[in-house]
Amino acid sequence: MRDRIDERTAERREFLKTAVAGLMVIFTEEDLQAATNFDEEIKGPPVRFGLIGLGQWGRELLSTLARLPIAEVTALCDTYQPLLRKGLELAPKATTVTDYRRLLDSPAVEAVIVATPTHQHREIVLAALQAGKHVYCEAPLAMGIDDAAAIARAARLAGGVKFQAGLQGRSNALYRHITQFVQAGVLGNPAQVYSQWNRKLSWRRAASTPEREREINWHLARATSIGIPGELGIHQFDLTGWYLRSLPVAVNGSGSVMNWNDGREIPDTVQVLLEHQKGLRQIFTATLTSSFSGSYTLMQGSDSALMLRENRGWMVKEADSPLLGWEVYAKKEDVHNETGICMVADATKLLEAGKEPGQEGSLEPTRNAISLAFHNFARSIREEAPVVANALQGYQATVVAIKAHESVMTGSRIEIPNSLYELK
């Protein structure tokens, strides 16, 4: 009896291997790259990184970077000395400077991560590219479209220098795995996309002086922020564009301060309708006043729906959709009172190890998206591999985010001509 069970298990694994391999053959080279797991060893010595900007997010990036074998943090830059001291706790061998130009002058820095407030990106990125440094620039690229275009154009013209936009979702192992199924047409005819980002978070931080308080609360001022759509929604806008190969032709938004009545100029609650071609629409809703239901993106089509959180994903099939075959063996869970097929990021590796995705091993990716984004960036430098989020993709995602924020602030519908997505 045991032999019969083992035989059936082996047959299931062989079937799943064949199904995954079958998906691969219909992809273009670009699709295949997007779906490939870049988690293998990188050739060459660690990349010597300098990090500019040690605010809340910058310290998060540093914490990840400092643990990567392929990275060596050689320099840190921030205008606020206490943050530099904290940074040294994570990267004790790094040199610290308060002027980013000194960091760029250092021969000990090969690549730069720009994690300053968005409105400061242009000056720093252009100087870094001019200095011949590889650049990882957090998303959005800039506050304004002209500044974002200037960054993207300079990145494209910088021969021998790598530029990666901080769209870490494109490095997310789960999202990359699911790319295979989306491009194979598992959704059927895409009908609509719903995205949300909910977390009770004021975005305001206290400081010792009014000047420092204004500096660290840049998220809250019109002059320095592109709000929730720009700082948060951009990643969900980019996911839709990446999966469905579509960019919005118009946006229509609204927003209000619903809870944090502290004099801020940026809404804490927003809704945006993004209109794509062929009638496809994405609804984006976000609030900093409630954490209920967290964040996710739901893509619905005529054959199935995909429910994607950062580390978990499910496919829910329609009753009349074609039978794929492999889903019979996949692990299933209840999702919104439906039967969801678990999408497992490391499925291919598990199969190669003789295990069954969803039955053995973790249902979540073994490495987080930021870690993989830096890993991918280091690979592009050491092995001349393409970056996973290039200058044009970063620019286009930024255009969508800027226009979405503009529509929220004006409460109006704004058309986005296709020419705006092009880099001239």
Task: Describe the structure in your own words.
This protein has 424 residues and is an alpha/beta fold. It has a domain at 171-360 and 409-418: Dihydrodipicolinate Reductase, domain 2 (2-Layer Sandwich), CATH 3.30.360.10. The chain contains 13 helices and 16 strands. It has helices at 2-24, 29-35, 56-65, 81-90, 100-105, 121-130, 145-157, 173-183, 210-216, 227-244, 347-352, 369-383, 391-410, and strands spanning 47-52, 71-77, 95-97, 111-114, 134-138, 163-166, 190-198, 250-256, 269-275, 281-287, 295-301, 304-308, 313-317, 332-335, 338-343, 413-415. The strands form two sheets. A ten-stranded mixed β-sheet has the order 14-15-13-12-11-7-10-9-8-16. The longest helix has 23 residues, at 2-24. The protein is globular. 44% of the residues are buried.
